[in-house]
Amino acid sequence: MTLLHMFSFPFIQRALIAGMLVSLCAALLGVPLVLKRYSMIGDGLSHVSFGALAVAVAWGFTPLYFSIPVVILAAFLLLRVADSPRWNSDAAIAVVSASALALGVLVISRTSGMTTDVDNYMFGSVLAMTKADVALSVFLCIAVLTLYILYYHRLFAVTFDESFSRATGLNAGQINGLLAILTALTIVLGMRMMGAMLISSLVIFPALTAMRLFRSFRGVVLCAAVTSVTCFCAGLTISFACSTPVGATVVAANLTLFLLACGCALLRRR
User: How far is the C-alpha of 218 from the C-alpha of 191, rounded, in Å?
Assistant: First the structure.
């Protein structure tokens, strides 16, 4: 009865809807990002989002609308750096990530002090989700599903052999651009609930779990989507029942399922 009672709270309803949609988007975008070895971009963007949110709060801007274009620009920058042979992509992501995180902490410490706002930004808060977040989550989910429906074969080609795709005349830049925009939106939305330190797990864990169980691209995509949504629902429920942080509990659920998938893969090889 207690678990059924949790769904009577409006903030839980908003968190459940937005969280499931953001988890689905993160998993679908995470598969090509992990396969292209861009998984750490999600971590870098989450720290950029934290810095942008801190600046927005300090300057009195609407945090969500200020951080979205900043994170989108950062996503394009990091993807361009990752494609450039002149740069070490891991080092570039680390520099951007650490700089944005430091900027955010400095700005908040100079304006409002090290209050619970920092904790909410860093580790998320289920109370932070608003009706606007839910509406934006619905729009984001439609956009990601549209990307897969309309560009599935092109996304598959760019994911596994971008050089060959470009040689055949495929506009790989367009696909990478769409990935950058949608990933940025997913990071900004998910950070409000998962936090800057944990949101990248929604991008990485479901894809890694699915890769332990399936070999085909389609199988990995579908499995990652189901895994991500299931782990979020389990994490939210356990969080409410045990009074634990939502973000950390969702990550723990993803980690548990990943370890089980690794065990299954090991048994299957034997």
Answer: 27
**Residue 112 pLDDT > 60:** no
| Mean pLDDT of all residues belonging to the chain | 83
Whether 232 and 190 have beta carbons less than 8 Å apart is answered as no
**Residues in Cβ contact with 180 at an 8 Å cutoff, skipping those fewer than 6 apart:** 72, 75, 76, 79
pLDDT digits (tens, 9 = 90+) for 23-43: 999 999 999 988 887 777 877
Question: What own/partner pairs with CB < 8 Å and gap ≥ 24 does 95-100 have?
Answer: 96/44, 96/47, 96/48, 97/43, 97/44, 97/47, 97/48, 98/47, 99/51, 100/44, 100/47, 100/48, 100/50, 100/51, 100/52, 100/74
Does position 108 have pLDDT exceeding 60, yes or no?
yes
Residue 206, CA atoms < 13 Å, CB-side half-sphere: 31
Q: What is the pTM of this model?
A: 0.87
Q: Which residue type, as a one-letter code, is found at position 219?
A: G
Q: How many CB atoms lie within 10 A of CB 117?
A: 16
CA 154 vs CA 32, 150, 178, 216: distances in Å = 11, 9, 12, 16
* Inter-residue contact 175 to 158 (CB < 8 Å): yes
